[in-house]
Design brief:
By secondary structure, the chain is an alpha+beta fold. The chain has 2 domains: 1-81, no CATH class; 129-204 and 254-416, FAD/NAD(P)-binding domain. Helices cover 22% and strands 32% of the residues. The protein is built from 8 helices and 24 strands. The longest helix is centred in the last third of the chain and has 26 residues, at 376-401. The chain is globular.
Length: 420
């Protein structure tokens, strides 16, 4: 069991006790009431050893989370009689992950008076150049970030997309035809840093924590990034912004379905010598088994990415990342909601990554602040909206590029979704 303790200086701690573990809560109903009256709180026991569920850092059962014979995750196996003391943090909202989706959700929730903690695992900041197409600019304005696009160190205007297909045919998409008439190439490193600064300015608190487990009563067990110390974070709502790992959602029972298996390889990261303030085009080309795009961003920086199917021969690359199109079986549940790549992820050519991060954070925040909050109905509606958006974006990709491989059997049968 996990019990909060208050030290002599008022510091709250939790103690995980590993005992024989009988079914149900420890102690008599009278003792439980007395515990609550004296400021002690208990986390309900797990299913097997009476302990909170711990899982490996990537969400798969590992050393910290073994599986039972039927394949379901079992709780951590702690030595009988051993006490593990945890610092306890309490907050209205815990955001796990410090990418654009998590930072935007944290900032919006704080603006509406919620106390928010961001668990930042300290992963290497993203340095990609990403396209915000004209259709995304309404969302950028809705989350109050349009001023960032005026900073030439963060964003560079993009006039459209020029495509060269494997047949040799070419076409282009001029953004002048769209309502907002222009897109922007964003330097994610600088963009994310500004998002973080703005979140801090409205009262969001950051901790160097990595989620390593969850408890049945919405708690998240985290390990401090600067030490081996473990903390228990208790929050009314947990926002999963852990990217493709979907670390919280998967621990809560959601599964990830992969529409395809793709890898993106960075093959160029240089300067193009463009004049400051000049606009650019995104150049797309296909040479048969692979697709590539060249994108020019702020301060003359240019990147070329090559996308190939997983399992095909890899070429020389500066960096390789997962580019599979993926969708969660459920994007929200009791006490948690997923945003950004944790809810659905796309390949880079779809130009949906940053837009998806901002738009999902906006919609999720609206759901959390509504009268229903995260009721079973609103969680289901959010999950349905995520799935509909994903399928719409994939249909658009098929119509433009015609590159979608046949759907795996698991996609057609939700009961057989591919566990990442």
């Amino acid at each position: 069991m996990v019990r909060a303790r208050h030290g002599v200086a008022g510091e709250e701690r939790a103690c995980i006790s590993a005992g024989a573990g009988s079914a149900g809560r420890a102690g008599t109903p009278r003792q439980q009431r007395a515990d609550r009256c004296h400021g002690r709180s208990e986390v309900p026991r797990g299913r097997r050893h009476g302990e909170p569920f711990l899982a490996a850092d990537d969400g798969r059962p590992g050393a910290a989370a073994r599986c039972t014979q039927d394949g379901s995750p079992a709780e951590a196996d702690l030595s009988p009689g051993r006490d593990l003391t945890l610092d306890v943090l309490r907050t209205d909202c815990l955001v796990v992950g410090a990418g654009p989706a998590g930072l935007t959700a944290a900032r919006l929730l704080a603006l509406w008076g919620r106390t928010v903690i961001v668990a930042d695992s300290g992963v290497t900041p993203t340095t990609r150049l990403e396209l915000l197409a004209p259709a995304s600019l309404v969302t950028v304005a809705a989350v109050g970030l349009e001023h960032l696009l005026d900073d030439p160190a963060i964003a560079r205007a993009c006039l459209g997309i020029r495509r060269t297909h494997r047949s040799g045919a070419s076409d282009y998409e001029d953004f002048l035809r769209h309502p907002c008439r222009v897109g922007y190439v964003v330097d994610r490193g600088r963009f994310d840093q500004r998002l973080r600064d703005e979140a801090v300015a409205v009262g969001v608190t950051f901790y160097g924590l990595r989620a390593i487990g969850v408890t049945p009563d919405r708690g998240v067990i985290c390990r401090a990034s600067d030490s081996a110390r473990t903390k228990l974070v208790l929050a009314e709502i947990v926002v999963d912004a852990t990217g493709r790992a979907a670390a919280i959602a998967r621990r809560r029972g959601a599964r990830v379905a992969a529409r395809d298996r793709m890898v993106a390889e960075l093959v160029e990261d240089a300067a193009d010598g463009a004049t400051a303030g000049s606009a650019s085009w995104l150049e797309y080309s296909s040479d048969g088994p692979t697709w590539s795009y060249r994108i020019s961003g702020p301060r003359g920086r240019v990147q070329t990415w090559r996308i190939r199917r997983s399992g095909t021969p890899a070429g020389d690359a500066l960096l390789s990342v997962d580019a599979s199109a993926c969708l969660l079986s459920e994007a929200a549940g009791e006490g948690w909601i997923a945003v950004g790549d944790a809810a659905m992820a796309f390949d880079p050519i779809a130009s949906q990554g940053l837009f998806n991060a901002l738009s999902s954070a906006l919609v999720a925040t609206g759901a959390l602040l509504s009268a229903d909050r995260l009721s079973p109905t609103s969680a289901r509606l959010y999950s349905d909206a995520v799935a509909t958006t994903f399928l719409h974006c994939e249909a658009g990709r098929i119509s433009v590029y015609g590159t979608m491989p046949p759907a795996p059997q698991s996609w057609a049968d939700p009961a057989k979704t591919i566990a990442q």
